[in-house]
């Protein structure tokens, strides 16, 4: 992995550099610390969009 990657740790609910918790406990990698900080929000937005798409497909 290249230097400068960032992760969002689901165990500690915080952004971590490449050296951190095991990847099984993290989301990423992200190019910037700010991108990693928004990981949960982006995941929630994507889940909502997918749920809405599933509802549209069922109609």
UniProtKB/TrEMBL annotation:
It comes from Nonomuraea africana. Residues 18-59 are annotated as: Disordered. The lineage of its organism: Bacteria, Bacillati, Actinomycetota, Actinomycetes, Streptosporangiales. Residues 18-27 have a biased composition (Basic and acidic residues). This is SPOR domain-containing protein.
């Amino acid at each position: 992995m290249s230097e400068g990657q960032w992760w969002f740790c689901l165990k500690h609910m915080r952004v971590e550099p490449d050296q951190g918790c095991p990847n099984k406990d993290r989301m990423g990698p992200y190019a910037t610390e700010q991108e990693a900080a928004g990981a949960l929000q982006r995941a929630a937005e994507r889940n909502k969009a997918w749920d809405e798409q599933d509802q549209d497909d069922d109609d």
